Structures are given as C-alpha cells and as structure tokens.
C-alpha cells in the first residue's frame, strides 16, 4: 500500500449542523464522526494540511441555507485559524471554489476525503480529484449517507447507497480505505 504523504490534505466535506436534520432520514455509519475526529486530531498533531468545505445552498429549503444554524460547522469540525476553508454551491468541492489552485500552490498531490454525503458531495469531489490527477483516498468509515428512493420509488438503505457509491469510486477515481488503515500508514 502507498504511504500517506507528509503533506497529504485531509478534506472534510460539509460537516455542518444541518446534516443532522431529522428530515434527511435514516443514515449509516453511526460512528463516522468519531472516525473523522480521530483523523482530524492526527492531521492537526502532525501539522498536515486540513481543508474544510462548507456547502452554501442556493435553495431556501435546504438544511445548508446561509444565515441559518444548519449552515454553521458542527463544533467538533470548526476550522482552526491555520486550516483552509472553501465554500461551494454544488456537490463538487472543486467547482468554482479555488480548491484545485490552492492545492497545486502547496504541491499537495494526495487527498484524504471524509464527510457527507457519500453518494453526493463526497463522490462528486472524489471523482473530480481523481480526474484532476490527485492521489485520492476516500475514508469509508468516516463518511455516511442516508436512505434514498430511486426513480421507481424503491427505498434503498443508507448502507447499500454508501457501499455502491464507494464501489463506483474504487473503480477509477480513488482508493477506498478505512480510518484504521489510514492511521497505520501515516
């Protein structure tokens, strides 16, 4: 396995208060926040780059509508002064955000992606990262999603949605690892 680079960036996606809104429904990975917090602590201790991504919705009904408590970061994932913050209006953290430029300026070639929603912002961002040539790792147990209905009305459990999204990413875009594997490689 490839080691984790000394300047690998931990990219934390959309860990805002709104993601806990009950209307989003049942989710998987109930310990995902603990895994994210362990990785964040390790990155801070080693002084590796930490990048926080905040979704600023254009939809007034969104849990991430600006100016509302749901748009603010969860306390455990509030950026510290030395950590980068990028805002996005679409699922992909690279789209019109300046993230790619920021990473290239710092010669960061490896990204570890955690956060929410596995099959939305995490998947979209990881696909772009892979397409842009970054060595991309998605940390499976540090991401989660929600139950989802397909176009025919069938309800898919969050764990199945999560597994399929990670399988899609593992085909061409990213390595998919668990947090214990990542921490053992650093």
Q: What is the straight-line distance between the termini?
A: 11 Å
Percent of residues in helical segments? 25-40%
SSE pattern? EHEEHEHEEEHEH
* Lateral arrangement of strands in the main beta sheet: 3-2-1-4-5-8
CATH domain class name: Alpha Beta
What is the fold-level CATH name, i.e. the topology?
Rossmann fold
The number of distinct β-strands equals 8
Mean pLDDT: 96
Low-confidence stretches: none
What is the 3D shape?
globular
By secondary-structure content and strand pairing, the structural class works out as alpha/beta
Largest sheet: 6 strands, parallel
Put simply, the count of helices is 5
What is the level-2 CATH architecture name?
A: 3-Layer(aba) Sandwich
Could you walk me through the main structural features you see in this protein, from its secondary elements to its overall organization?
The chain is 31% helix and 22% strand. It has 186 residues and is an alpha/beta fold. The chain has a single domain, classed as Isochorismatase-like (Rossmann fold, 3-Layer(aba) Sandwich), CATH 3.40.50.850. The longest helix has 15 residues, at 32-46. The protein is globular. The model has no long low-confidence stretch (mean pLDDT 96). It holds the Pfam family Isochorismatase. It comes from Pseudomonas xantholysinigenes. GO terms for molecular function: hydrolase activity. Keywords: Hydrolase.
């Amino acid at each position: 396995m490839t080691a984790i680079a000394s300047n690998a960036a931990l990219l934390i996606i959309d860990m805002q208060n709104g993601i806990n809104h009950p209307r989003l429904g049942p989710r998987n990975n109930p310990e995902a926040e603990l895994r994210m917090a362990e990785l964040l602590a390790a990155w801070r201790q080693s002084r590796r780059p930490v990048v926080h991504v905040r979704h600023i919705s254009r939809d007034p009904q969104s849990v991430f509508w600006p100016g509302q408590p749901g748009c603010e970061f969860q306390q455990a994932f509030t950026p510290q002064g030395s950590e980068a913050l990028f805002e996005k209006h679409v699922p992909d953290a690279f789209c019109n955000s300046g993230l790619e430029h920021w990473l290239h300026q710092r010669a960061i070639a490896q990204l570890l992606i955690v956060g929410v929603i596995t099959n939305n912002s995490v998947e979209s961002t990881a696909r772009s990262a892979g397409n842009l040539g970054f060595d991309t790792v998605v940390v499976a147990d540090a991401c989660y999603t929600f139950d989802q209905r397909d176009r025919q009305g069938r309800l898919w459990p969050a764990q199945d949605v999560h597994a399929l999204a990670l399988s899609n990413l593992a085909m061409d875009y990213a390595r998919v690892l668990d947090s214990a594997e990542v921490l053992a490689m650093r």
